[in-house]
């Protein structure tokens, strides 16, 4: 790594600060070549990591011109990128198109793959650290949180990252590695799609939903394991989408080229047209209703919210047994009052636990303990939830019995 003295500092002329932050990035110009660069101050403990980063040549990473230790400070001179951050793009453009989200994510994965090959983890992948250049190139910037993967530590020595985008292990649960960056990228993709974090509202986009869900699993072992694996998944989805668009365009072109057909029908043409119109409206209405029902099940109903086939099958079996059981018990009762009593008892004993412990309607994210990423806090939350179920069930059964005796 190159270290310069005070005289070499005159090779660059400071133009202006790029932010209002103390020790924030400064726009500078190299005196001999007249090129513009960004000068940034980094902690000295990052010297080795940034030296390794300087040797990485990747189109989606900024080029590092020089790395300098001067007057006890570490300075990095990197490529000046003209464009907007992804945060600014989202704010000005709104929700991005699926194909654009895939393209951005694949570019970031290529940058991350280059870092990961050198044993480095970015640890702060977020819209504010993703630049869109004026030429349309995606650049992953800002290496304040970069670290090398050790593989034998129980947690990171220095816990850094942006709340909401940082993976659970970055807050002391385990050592962060390349899967931590993939978690953050999954969050970014969801923000691009619906402007919400996945735990608050997961995108309904069929192309993105499964990828984001897998990338943002709490357990690192359940996520994509490498940037290449996630990149391949995105590329497959993008290829399918492009093929579908081409097929739709080809189909539309064929329809335009078709000759006008004549029909030997005695009914007026307007009658035929109106009949077809009503049929089309009925089909469209039916398909939309099905989409609403499927969307509701996939978003709220436990067992169907997952992309795992066996979990959906198990949920279907359980719900079938539940409804068949409750129906059979009610039918066997001799009187209407007994049927009502049996129905309420059955819901309290068997129905309420399903609602409470499988997070029906995603209510748990609104409760402090149950929505915590700390396993101890979540365990306490589930313990309190179990006590709540016992009290509600006991009280409900006694109240139901009292009402039955009172009016029968």
Automatic annotation (TrEMBL):
<dbReference type="InterPro" id="IPR011009">
    <property type="entry name" value="Kinase-like_dom_sf"/>
</dbReference>
<dbReference type="GO" id="GO:0005524">
    <property type="term" value="F:ATP binding"/>
</dbReference>
<keyword id="KW-1133">Transmembrane helix</keyword>
<dbReference type="Pfam" id="PF00069">
    <property type="entry name" value="Pkinase"/>
</dbReference>
<dbReference type="GO" id="GO:0004674">
    <property type="term" value="F:protein serine/threonine kinase activity"/>
</dbReference>
<feature type="transmembrane region" description="Helical">
    <location>
        <begin position="375"/>
        <end position="392"/>
    </location>
</feature>
<dbReference type="GO" id="GO:0035556">
    <property type="term" value="P:intracellular signal transduction"/>
</dbReference>
<dbReference type="InterPro" id="IPR008271">
    <property type="entry name" value="Ser/Thr_kinase_AS"/>
</dbReference>
<keyword id="KW-0812">Transmembrane</keyword>
<keyword id="KW-0472">Membrane</keyword>
<feature type="domain" description="Protein kinase">
    <location>
        <begin position="1"/>
        <end position="279"/>
    </location>
</feature>
<protein>
    <recommendedName>
        <fullName>Protein kinase domain-containing protein</fullName>
    </recommendedName>
</protein>
<dbReference type="InterPro" id="IPR000719">
    <property type="entry name" value="Prot_kinase_dom"/>
</dbReference>
<feature type="transmembrane region" description="Helical">
    <location>
        <begin position="343"/>
        <end position="363"/>
    </location>
</feature>
<feature type="transmembrane region" description="Helical">
    <location>
        <begin position="309"/>
        <end position="331"/>
    </location>
</feature>
<dbReference type="InterPro" id="IPR050285">
    <property type="entry name" value="STE20_Ser/Thr_kinase"/>
</dbReference>
<dbReference type="GO" id="GO:0005737">
    <property type="term" value="C:cytoplasm"/>
</dbReference>
């Amino acid at each position: 790594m190159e270290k310069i003295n005070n005289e070499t500092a005159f090779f660059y002329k400071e133009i202006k600060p790029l932010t209002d932050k103390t020790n924030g990035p400064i726009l500078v110009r190299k005196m001999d070549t007249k090129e513009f660069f960004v000068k940034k101050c980094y902690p000295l403990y990052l010297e080795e990591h940034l030296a390794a980063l300087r040797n990485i040549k990747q189109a989606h990473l900024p080029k590092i011109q020089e790395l300098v230790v001067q007057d006890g400070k570490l300075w990095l001179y990197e490529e000046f990128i003209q464009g907007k951050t992804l945060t600014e793009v989202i704010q000005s453009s709104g929700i991005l198109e699926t194909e654009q989200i895939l393209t951005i994510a694949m570019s970031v994965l290529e940058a991350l793959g280059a870092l990961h090959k050198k044993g480095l983890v970015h640890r702060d992948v977020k819209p504010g650290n993703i630049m869109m250049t004026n030429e349309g190139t995606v650049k992953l910037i800002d290496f304040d949180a970069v670290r090398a993967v050790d593989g034998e530590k129980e947690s990171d020595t220095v816990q850094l990252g942006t709340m909401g985008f940082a993976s659970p292990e970055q807050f002391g649960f385990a050592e962060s590695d390349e899967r931590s960056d993939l978690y953050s990228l999954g969050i970014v993709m969801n923000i691009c799609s619906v402007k919400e974090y996945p735990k608050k509202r997961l995108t309904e986009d069929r192309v993105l939903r499964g990828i984001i869900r897998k990338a943002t699993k709490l357990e690192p072992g359940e996520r994509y394991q490498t940037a290449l694996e996630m990149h391949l998944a995105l590329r497959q989805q993008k290829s399918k989408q492009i093929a579908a668009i081409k097929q739709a365009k080809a189909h539309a072109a064929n329809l335009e080229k078709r000759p006008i057909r004549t029909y030997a029908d005695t009914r007026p043409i307007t009658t035929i047209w109106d009949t077809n119109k009503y049929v089309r409206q009925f089909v469209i209405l039916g398909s939309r209703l099905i989409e609403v029902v499927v969307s509701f099940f996939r978003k709220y109903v436990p067992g169907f919210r997952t992309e795992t086939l066996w979990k959906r099958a198990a949920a279907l079996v359980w719900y079938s047994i539940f409804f068949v059981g409750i129906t059979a018990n009610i039918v066997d009762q001799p009187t209407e009052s007994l049927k009502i009593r049996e129905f309420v008892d059955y819901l309290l004993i068997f129905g309420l636990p399903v609602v409470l412990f499988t997070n029906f309607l995603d209510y748990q994210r609104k409760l402090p303990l149950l929505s915590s990423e700390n396993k101890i806090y979540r365990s306490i939350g589930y313990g309190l939830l179990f006590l709540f179920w016992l009290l509600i069930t006991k009280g409900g059964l006694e109240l139901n019995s009292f009402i039955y005796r009172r009016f029968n």
